[in-house]
């Protein structure tokens, strides 16, 4: 079938940038957060749709355009939310001044809906109005002219007029394109992929994500609408049913550390989330996990001795009877500070309150290792070892 490829770029995350500049602890202070306490017990209540801290480590971004003529935006393609939003020209928050903003008056295809939207984040709410326009997720360049790719017409999206705190100011992205189920969409807006299906823009109602492990630019990272690419994984895809349609939620059978079941022995729930960079779980469990891998709290995160990677335990997620094992090199993040190697844990505590939680979040640390296919036609997730 016909598939559409969206290249993803990999940039240095905000956390790494701040760390390199020696500004990480200042950032935490500006958020009024005690670093370690926060790392261990970031709590999401029901009305917080997204914990903002997720975006501190985001590294994979794509480009979309909205309107005609097209206005381009860098976005995170986020399976953990379902709205599309970009900054509005009417936004005066500090964060909007540093990003591309949407000018409705410059688009011939824009229509104003005027209803308000608000997305709660840990440090404040992002709010604005909802408009509708054409959204092109896969335009490409020919002789420096932008050529239309996959165009969704009449897509409702948020134009943010206020953006909270300092968090978005330094962010690499302008906005977020949610790929979750419609039930997660704020304001009852139809998500982009649902419109793609309704407008027959994809042959098969699925999309897939490949996140390259290549640290410089993440060459080859891509999101594919309408199918998947065999060259990105080895062996067969193993399919896992979605247990609850909102997030891309699945059941975990168990989590093993060094071959012994440590968590989730009775089973638990997880989501596969391209919009979370790390792997998160209930803070009390993750605290035990950090200890088990030998990670020590330092400067707002958990550090490990880079020299110990070869003796640290594997961490295995058993999903639908299949083992998905992360070696220490996969679940730790390597960075250089003043020429010195710095290794940090790819696990983080995040408490998601009932009824949505508790949940483990299998973010980019997991997806880099396991190619992920999101099948809306059969409400299932496909996983297979990614080709690095």
From TrEMBL:
It catalyses: Similar to cathepsin D, but slightly broader specificity. InterPro entries: Aspartic_peptidase_A1, Aspartic_peptidase_AS, Aspartic_peptidase_N, PEPTIDASE_A1, Peptidase_aspartic_dom_sf. One of its GO terms (biological process) is antigen processing and presentation of exogenous peptide antigen via MHC class II. Disulfide bonds join 91-96, 264-268, 306-343. The active site is at residues 78, 273. Keywords: Aspartyl protease, Disulfide bond, Endosome, Glycoprotein, Hydrolase, Protease, Signal, Zymogen. Its main location: other. It is found in: Endosome. GO terms for cellular component: endosome. Its EC number is 3.4.23.34. One of its GO terms (molecular function) is aspartic-type endopeptidase activity. It is an enzyme of class 3 (hydrolase). SUPFAM superfamilies: Acid proteases. Residues 60-384 form the Peptidase A1 domain. The keyword Nuclease does not apply. It comes from the Eukaryota. Belongs to the peptidase A1 family. Homodimer; disulfide-linked. May have a role in immune function. Probably involved in the processing of antigenic peptides during MHC class II-mediated antigen presentation. May play a role in activation-induced lymphocyte depletion in the thymus, and in neuronal degeneration and glial cell activation in the brain. This is Cathepsin E. It comes from Ailuropoda melanoleuca.
């Amino acid at each position: 079938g016909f598939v559409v490829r969206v290249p993803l770029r990999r940039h240095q995350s905000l956390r790494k940038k701040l760390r390199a500049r020696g500004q990480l602890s200042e950032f935490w202070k500006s958020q009024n957060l005690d670093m370690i306490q926060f790392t261990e017990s970031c709590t999401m209540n029901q009305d917080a749709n997204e914990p903002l801290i997720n975006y501190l480590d985001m590294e994979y971004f794509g480009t979309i355009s909205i309107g005609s003529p097209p206005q381009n935006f860098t976005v995170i393609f986020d399976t953990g939310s379902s709205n599309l939003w970009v900054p509005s020209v009417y936004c005066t928050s500090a964060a909007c001044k540093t990003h591309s903003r949407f000018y409705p008056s410059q688009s011939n295809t824009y229509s104003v809906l005027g209803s308000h939207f608000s997305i709660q984040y840990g440090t404040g709410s992002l709010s604005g109005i909802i408009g509708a326009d054409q959204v092109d997720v896969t335009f490409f360049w020919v002789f420096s002219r932008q050529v239309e790719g996959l165009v969704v017409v009449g897509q409702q999206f948020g134009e943010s007029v206020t953006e909270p705190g300092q968090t978005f100011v330094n962010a690499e992205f302008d906005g977020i394109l949610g790929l979750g189920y419609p039930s997660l969409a704020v304001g009852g807006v139809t998500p982009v992929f649902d419109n793609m299906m309704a407008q027959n823009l994809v042959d098969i109602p699925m999309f897939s994500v490949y996140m390259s492990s290549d640290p410089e630019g993440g060459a080859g990272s891509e999101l594919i609408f309408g199918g998947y690419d065999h060259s990105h994984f080895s062996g067969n895809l193993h399919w896992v049913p979605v247990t609850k349609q909102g997030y891309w939620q699945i059941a975990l059978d168990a989590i093993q550390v060094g071959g012994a079941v440590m968590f989730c022995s009775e089973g638990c729930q997880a989501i596969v989330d391209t919009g979370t960079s790390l792997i998160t779980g209930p803070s009390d469990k993750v605290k035990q996990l950090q200890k088990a891998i030998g990670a020590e709290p330092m400067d707002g995160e958990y550090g490990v001795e880079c020299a110990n990677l070869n003796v640290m335990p594997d961490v295995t997620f058993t999903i639908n009877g299949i083992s998905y094992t992360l070696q220490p090199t996969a679940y730790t993040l390597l960075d250089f500070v003043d020429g010195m190697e710095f290794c940090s844990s790819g696990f983080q505590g995040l408490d998601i309150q009932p009824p949505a939680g508790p949940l483990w979040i299998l973010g980019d640390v997991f997806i880099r290792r396991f190619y992920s296919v999101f099948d809306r036609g059969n409400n299932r997730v496909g996983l297979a070892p990614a080709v690095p």
